[in-house]
């Protein structure tokens, strides 16, 4: 087993372990922080298979933006963050059984599909920023541009769902909306 | 690299040799013009939202949407005349006509153009329903302010002040854009992006009903969560198929599948997961659970748009992926799709009988009709040059046209039968509608007869084409199951007609609101098409047949 493969295995172990903790912890902030470790370890895996650009995007977007956004959302909505803040339902055991089954099934498919593959030391060029940029602004330019419209639609939607009209701008910040009457 | 960019680079003290050269992508703007027109319409809508005065905004937005769709329709006709050249393979002309555009991201061929035309027409009539303001005292059927709590003081204030959400039009245009790109995608990545563009605005629109807002919000959340879940399945399937074939492009996947380049497990799992994502969108059993709740809770205009549009887009994509990409593995997926088709027809028709709510009834009807369309899909009859037998692709497209018009018309009528609390959902309250408004009840009866597949309505011709395509593909058990479930469903549709015309009204009976010219136009057009396609289906059937097969 080469050095690359050994490191890959270790990073994957860290990713799986912290992912399990992220879903099983009872504190919601801890879950978010375990997620940082998971995503970071996966970024390391990307680096090892030569996808350097994706690795840094993973760090910047997932760790830098998504998880931080999650923490901000927890903070701004004043959601409980103490012990037992990650609520569990009575379906917990069923959900666990289903996830184990699905994970087992997918793992079996992966093993049968890629069992003989060896991890070569990363080659330069394939996953570099230059080649990704070439692909995005060449072959994939149309889906890339359409993706920006998803973001625009989401933005418009967020405004629709949250904006109060000009007639009601006298509400104090943090104004709690009235409860439904029934 | 041009001299200009070279000069700019020199100014920045960078050596051009250090940078990789990026050639400009080739984009066929003319062929893409229908898609570009809808994109422009959506963007103009966003600008109108930002700049126009509030009082003028609703009228302006509906005008922009309708003009934009008309422009896109004109562009579609132009494309169908100019850009559908014959495709030759080793000197012989194939059935397929058209070409791939935008660096191979989209393929504009006969089916694409036919589906674009359908989607644009459905969107046009749906926009007329969106723009209807005659039923809620001068306001639209959408909530005034989505941000205020249902039933609270804020909601009353918004209604008093006449505040309306006009963002619904750009959102609908974004959804329409996704619907147009979805069945035209030439690779799985573009298809996934289109799926998201089409879904996200619909999730939002579902939660914006003016009446019964909690139900509407529940529908939106349910649709969003299940939709996101199904998108994840779709994406995982794409990853597995990429792992198998090493490409996202449907033609390359086809080559890999035909040559069986790797272990079949990856391919089978990938196909299964991709089909979950697509079958969810067409609400096939066992992925239909969201349909009744969402159809019932969403604003009726949105339900009509979604029921017709999403079905067209999703079936177009389903056919393209499985016929083009996985055509070589059809003996693997066809048996499973046959089971799904039978299940969908049976569950749709049997549960339909027990429905008491008009919109839920139309939802189960939508499920049953998905089953009928799936028979032609599972039949997978691709035709051969020189014969006039209808192919699966043409049959599905014709059925989508038939079903879309009837369902939009039925939902338009559902917006008119009202009492003090808004639309009357419960079917028992529709008793006696025939005495209150014979014309409206008559037209609704026409749509029911079309759903049931009675001769001389469009529904009969639709069923005839899908069953004959399934028959040609040697899927005769599906035809038998289809005819039997049609009979079961027909029992329910006829019962609704009997209820409207011959049952005694409950209390005062239903009242029928007088709509503006928009909803009247929608009902008139959809009813006319339902009759015309039943009596002279020839021209549209020819159009569907001439669209030919997919370009690979």
Give me a quick take on this structure.
With 182 residues, chain A is an all-alpha fold. Chain A is built from 6 helices and no strands. In chain A, α1 runs antiparallel to α2 and α2 runs antiparallel to α3.
The CATH superfamily of the largest domain in chain A is known as NADH-ubiquinone/plastoquinone oxidoreductase chain 6, subunit NuoJ
User: Do you know the CATH topology of the largest domain in chain A?
Assistant: Four Helix Bundle (Hemerythrin (Met), subunit A)
> Overall pLDDT of chain B, averaged?
89
Most extensive chain interface and residues per partner: A-B, 41 and 58 residues
Given this structure, which CATH class of the largest domain in chain A is correct?
Mainly Alpha
- By secondary-structure content and strand pairing, the structural class of chain B works out as mainly alpha
Secondary structural class of chain A: mainly alpha
The main pleated sheet of chain A reads as:
none
List SSEs of chain B in N-to-C order: HHHEEEHHHHHHHHHHHHEEHHHHEHH
Tell the overall outline of chain A.
globular
Characterise the protein shown here:
The complex is a heterodimer of chains A (182) and B (552). Chain A is mostly helical and 182 residues long. Chain A contains 6 helices and no strands. Chain A has 2 domains: 85 residues, NADH-ubiquinone/plastoquinone oxidoreductase chain 6, subunit NuoJ (Four Helix Bundle (Hemerythrin (Met), subunit A), Up-down Bundle); 43 residues. Helices cover 66% and strands 0% of the residues of chain A. In chain A, helix 2 packs antiparallel against helix 3. The radius of gyration of chain A is 22 Å and the shape is globular. In chain A, 14% of the residues are buried. Chain B is globular, with a radius of gyration of 24 Å. Chain B starts with a helix and ends in a 6-residue tail after the last helix. The model of chain B has no long low-confidence stretch (mean pLDDT 89). Chains A and B meet through helix 4, helix 5 and helix 6 of A and helix 2, helix 5, helix 6, helix 7 and helix 8 of B.
